[in-house]
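Input structure tokens:
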């Protein structure tokens, strides 16, 4: 058991990703009156579906600002749960965020990265891991905007400070490792199938990530594609690009302690999955 590897299958959550944890936590932290005005978020995909699902279960309206290139399964999920998508080009969406466009909207805005209640909700993953793997020594977390890894790290290190938290990104968008090398925004454009990690640089998260992530790993894009296929064929687990990142990074680490990799989402475009399984 010294070097055992474990997979935490958040891809099996309602709406297909870990995001439901944070959105329920953030929505329930609002007053009933504020929550009743509806929820609003911005997302490349999984946060959109997670927010829509939470709003549906709580019986409140929801709108989601999404990339025009959002994966079809995520757009379908938003509509399935009764939420309204609003599509913007990537640069326009980032400008809307930078200018805090949500402040002129009537709904309660839940930021997918910086909201502290949302991060705390994601932290439940860490607490569950400590129960499920009592001798856990390391956790691998795919990182986009940073809300997941900050929440998980806070929960884990609050109980066991020695646990190593490893942040994982693709070499098609190694935003945070490059940011720490450069000391600021490296101005990268995503070229990765891990679209769930394609969040913009945020100076608030830069400081938070500096404090909570012990090590960064970068996965080559070909290895990530192979990892998706391996999980599907050998593990019978359907993972999207971002969801497979932590699993794909395991081979870069020594088998020196019990390690958990988070499989964070399974909302992959069926055409992409078929292409990867056929060797494309």
């Amino acid at each position: 058991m010294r070097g055992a590897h474990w997979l935490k299958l958040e891809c099996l959550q309602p709406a297909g990703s870990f995001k439901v944890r944070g959105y329920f936590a953030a929505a329930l932290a609002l007053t009933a009156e504020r929550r009743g005005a509806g929820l609003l978020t911005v997302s490349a995909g999984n946060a959109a579906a997670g927010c829509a699902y939470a709003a549906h279960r709580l019986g409140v309206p929801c709108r989601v600002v999404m990339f025009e290139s959002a994966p079809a399964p995520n757009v379908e999920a938003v509509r399935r749960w009764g939420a309204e998508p609003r599509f913007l080009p990537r640069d326009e969406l980032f400008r809307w965020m930078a200018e805090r466009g949500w402040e002129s909207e009537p709904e309660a805005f839940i930021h997918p990265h910086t909201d502290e209640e949302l991060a705390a909700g994601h932290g439940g993953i860490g607490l569950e891991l400590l129960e499920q793997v009592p001798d856990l020594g390391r956790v691998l977390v795919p990182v986009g905007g940073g809300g997941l890894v900050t929440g998980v790290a806070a929960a884990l290190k609050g109980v066991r400070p020695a646990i190593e938290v490893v942040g994982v990104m693709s070499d098609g968008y190694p935003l945070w490792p490059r940011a720490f090398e450069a000391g600021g925004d490296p101005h990268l454009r995503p070229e990765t199938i891990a679209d769930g990690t394609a969040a913009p640089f945020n100076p608030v998260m830069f400081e938070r990530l500096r404090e909570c992530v012990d090590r960064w790993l970068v996965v080559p894009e070909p290895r990530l594609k192979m990892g998706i296929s391996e999980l599907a064929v050998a593990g019978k687990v359907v993972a999207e690009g971002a969801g497979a990142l932590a699993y794909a990074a395991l081979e870069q680490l020594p088998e020196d302690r019990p390690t958990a990799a988070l499989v964070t989402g399974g909302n992959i475009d069926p055409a992409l999955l078929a292409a990867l399984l056929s060797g494309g």
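The mean pLDDT is 94. The two ends are 36 Å apart (CA to CA).
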